[in-house]
């Protein structure tokens, strides 16, 4: 399928940490066919590539994920079951990562934050990534809603949109906890899901062959969904949950989207950040030997003079 | 399984854009064992290779896809469920791509069209590909019918063939929409499925390691089926739907195959073309940096003189 | 898992066509640690390696395959469903291929026959392979029976072993057709399953990266099971069906193992050979460009003088 | 997802047999960024790396495995079925292997024992590995319990914890046999599961491309669960079963955790060792041609003088 333009050992995930996008590289020896910044749109696109990539990647993630929930819920489990939902989100993450190759494929503000804290990802990019991710998730929720509008009308009744009833469809877009959960339990469930996500992302990026990483991401999110997905619906991602929730509010699902749970909506906004930071911390403390604040003196909390001097000297040597 | 004739880094998908098939290459230095055009059949085959490959590839696609639906429907969900159908179509696409390696593995007229528009695939080949794909799908539907004839007789009653009833088996071969769907909804559902298909094919061909592409195609069609497959049965392919529909008409399923829906049959013939074009457009606009009309001045709509001159100059340089 | 003895680009499937096993290679420059034929057992083993490999490979195939059926049947579908059975046989073939790497991983007399006919595999080895495969399947059926003996006693009643009733367990080991099938339908179903098997094996070995071949074999058998497995239980293999059937006869399941169907038992013994030959023929006729009888003058049926001369000349040139 | 720090052909599983950890290598030419033993924590960690790796790897294995059982049991099969459990344990082993790359990813005392016996793994490390594995499994069981506490309370009744009833939840953590099993049957079921595990691990490590090994491990444990997992719950691992069983005892599940079965608890402690040894033995006897006691004179039982002399001479030559 497709003409063989892909080179054989093409890197799946590009290095974008340095903030210089290859498409606007100033290296005069590059004669790559990909460099054609002389036309208006390619020039614009290369400036906005990170945002576009995260937008489209998160769009694909939520499109497939929410689409799979919609199909299972609206067909009353005849065209899929919980496992389809795990497949949907897993494939969403896999293809989102293939889509957002140029921006590193974070697709999740909490992952971006952990990359900033533990892997020296540019803090300056954090707000751009987060906005693009939320907007991508919102666009995807709109498309899923448009596609399944007739089915929702048939399921809930024409024009009726509710939250929390047996015939409600708000759960297609954003997550709602099981009724027996305590507030602490909800937070912990999202926290542990996010920790596993981040821990395994670091483990996989470190240890898997690079071109198997997107496939492994499929398995990572599948695992979170199959093992810790029931209680709160494994949002583990502010963009994936808050974006579609906003959309359902705008589409007339009422205040229930905010006060169900009760007021559960803030948990999947906050817990993933703490969870991903903890998962990344755990990985770096026990297993990571590369560049990380954990592998600096006093685990990066302070940086004594001697260390500064060492680092400066090292830099000099490598420049010479 | 098999003797190790496959070379290790053998390309999964050959370059066929230039229209010169390697097997009839005139390069005198090629001493490949694959070049033996002196015998009658190999010579004939190499001339017809594109058509044969697309025929056999689409044959495998529809054989496994329709076969999986047949098994699920006729065994009354005891030997499979919706997920088997996703597996069946996904594996059909994967093995169809392996089978049709020599022609690029399009297996879908809408994919071929998008390749012509966005990747410079030879327009001259479009009608050949489309005919081969439709014929391949028809042959596969016949084989599936032959294989499951006893089971259909037992399911519908001996010699009875119907469309749209609870005991109908026409849905094994071609797709029929859910009863609650509006015409717009049907079109949109096929449109979005095809867009996802084409967008992800481009994303995967661009970013995945080449030998993982067929495996990724499995996941692509699985995703479309698990997330957007319920409402209209994810035909997303003129050949896959129209070919088997013709076969069911010829086999005596009656006029229902055309007027069910009502007159749904044209939707999976038309929508995939628009959907695939839109999906390819979206990918090229936001993410693609290679050769594409989108990456030309004014997004390829016009081509001002200066651009022509640049291109000509570039060509000269590369020839020199 | 395991110490890193595997080399990175280790071939998954060794070349065994020439009949000289690498372990007894006489090449004096080989200083491989694998060559230690001076001790008794390694020497014996290297002489019998083909038989041992096919035995163990078919053992694994049938162990996992029959094991998965046993678990589904005896747990009354609570610990698996039809899809588990597809997984079981698919994984059996995949791990059987990994196990029988040294002999080429045929695991099926019909595959061995097709390799002899279409790929120049040594005819001399055919009876050895076939015996080893049948014995391996018999050993596996015995182990599955031993493991699930208590469960069979609880399911059928202590010491009761029957064929063809609702509470029968003979179907765990050998295949039995659906009651509505005609004799022609049974034969055709096995024939088409075997054709798909062989066609896809050739397609995969030809076009997939070599180390992905066992994974693809998983998908191949999964596809046969999910799409054409219901009517006759996709034996597609004399060894897999006849071996365990003999075992069930010996274990006291009675004459029913032979006369059920009625006298169905010979279909999965004969049809796979025809099916695999046809599948291989189809692939070679339409797609294969390597060494095959199909790619000789008059499709290998006769070999006129001119062709002999050409071949001889070619050989001379390549020797010089 | 993630910044491209992973090198392209990075080895998935490092060689750790020699007991010298790369991070504390004394080779002065190594200028790897991974070598920074001057700080306190990295230095400590590199000394304890094996223990940390096995701890975290087994933690991930049991976290995902027990988590998947918890979700299936507590949601009363609405958010998963037996297949989710196979996925959970398979993914647990796969990601456990990615996590514990630095220690070889055994995650199972019986696997460590087999590596010592058949692959020259350091006996000195056996107790360290076993302790780390058991502690990791215990930690994981605690986290699963914490996460699903509300759900267990809702399922069993607040504060009630039982073993062996229809509403019991002890089976989430440790395994309990089916009621109809004999003691011999239990032992044999665990024995055969462990044999398959070890046999396939050796087959995969030997024959699969190195970076596909963790993916194959997913399939290995999935196969054991789908084909031989029903009767005793496929513990096949002292750490996975005994660790969580201790935790459930500490959490108040009562003496039932020990005397259910009756006194089944010792079977998954003992049988895996025998099973893994037998599986490894089988592989080495019939298929392995590398360094193994089986490939020594008299299958390693004795080592006559001549063999010693040969070995010594060989060593000299390779040193010269």
UniProtKB/TrEMBL annotation, chains A, B, C, D:
The keyword Thylakoid does not apply. It catalyses: glycerol(in) = glycerol(out); H2O(in) = H2O(out). Belongs to the MIP/aquaporin (TC 1.A.8) family. This is Aquaporin-like protein. One of its GO terms (molecular function) is glycerol channel activity. Keywords: Membrane, Repeat, Transmembrane, Transmembrane helix, Transport. GO terms for cellular component: plasma membrane.
